[in-house]
Amino acid sequence: MIKFLFIALLITVLTVLVAGLRITIQDSIDLTFNPEFQLSNSQNEEKRLIQTSSSTAEWMTEEQVFGLIRNKIKFMDITDYRSLGTKYKAFKKHEFPVTPAFQDEVMPLINNLTTKYMRKNLEKFTSFRNRYYKSKYGAESSQWLYDQVVTIVKNSNYSDAILSVKQFPHRWEQKSIIARFQGSDDDKSNEVVIVAAHQDSVNMWMPSFGRAPGADDDGSGTVTILEAFRVLVEGQFRPKRSVEFHWYSAEEGGLLGSQAIASHYENLGVDVIAMLQNDMTGYVGKKYPEAFGIVVDFVDPDLTEFIRKLIKSYAQLPARNTKCGYACSDHASWRKAGYPSAFAIEGAFEDSNPYIHTSNDVLDHLSFEHMLEFSKLSVSFAVELSHI
Ligand code: BES
Ligand code: ZN
């Protein structure tokens, strides 16, 4: 019996390994000149165009994409967004402030932040079996999150024209969510500042059915910005330039939700002044002293310099530069569209949460105090960049 189980296990492991290998050695498409890259998806109905490096993409089945996730191969699903960044019209370059200047407005807001709601929200958010974008649980968790944002808005006395929330639908069930403070300055009506996180989670072994609490990835970012949003609403925040909070669907599917929204904004000609991604804000690593990880690749260097200044002014932790080494989260979709984006993570990339994408990405490994520092960054980002 034991022998039989061992052989079965061996066969499973070999199948997974071979599937992974097949993917890496498959014919690839050179993004720089291959005309097939621009072809429609008609002969490839069930396949997706998956970019695995800066210059290559391959048509893959869902099973092959699952193989990438299992083998920790980095990818972006560019099937529907092959023109992302090609229509972008260069807006006049906005300079970021030399120094933060709205302490009087930011400080009382920050003082109203609390871990209480973050904990309560994250407990519920991690109780969905998973938040995979194609699973029914992913659709349910998205609806629950939308209801929380709506409740915060309903408890305020803003008019609908000044504070609104909407669900952004996709070709899959899990919707992205966008909450918007309408800017008061008509001269800036086409401009927006974005604070974001992704709401989906994934179990790398069984994406659709496996347990994926995604407490850190990215439940932490989700509640970090929800708490920032709550204090801004309670504080009657009224920016000159519009500010939006985004909770993306399908980041784990290859940055799908953020690409859809970035490409929509690019088509509309919206002038995105700055975008800040919050993905994994809750785990304090063991290798280095506690700090913000400031991602310095696939981001805008000037905006990144400005978030260092915000951290110095408003947070209680130092900042440490780090790199993902690839387009690891939704900031990359905005950057690809041509807009300035920045990304703060829980610490150095190599010191980040080892449990992500498994059933063990749970609350016990996280620090709410650590997350709260990121809420301070989001609040100050929204205020300082929307009044100038
Ligand atoms: N949260 C991760 C990225 C990350 C990992 C940030 C470690 C900071 C530290 C993100 O959700 C993710 O899993 N990204 C994918 C790539 C994505 C394009 C599918 C990944 O890293 O494999
Ligand atoms: Zn992830």
TrEMBL record:
Named cofactor requirement(s): Zn(2+)
Peptidase M28 domain mapped to chain residues: 177-378
EC primary class: hydrolase
Entry EC no(s): 3.4.-.-
Signal peptide: 1-20
MF GO annotations: aminopeptidase activity; metal ion binding; metalloexopeptidase activity
Highest taxon of the lineage: Eukaryota
InterPro entries according to UniProt: M28_fam, Peptidase_M28
A biological-process GO annotation: proteolysis
Keywords, comma-separated and alphabetical: Aminopeptidase, Hydrolase, Metal-binding, Protease, Signal, Zinc
UniProt record similarity statement: Belongs to the peptidase M28 family. M28E subfamily.
Alphabetical list of PANTHER family matching this protein: AMINOPEPTIDASE YDR415C-RELATED, METALLOPEPTIDASE M28 FAMILY MEMBER
Protein name: Peptide hydrolase
Natural source organism: Gigaspora rosea
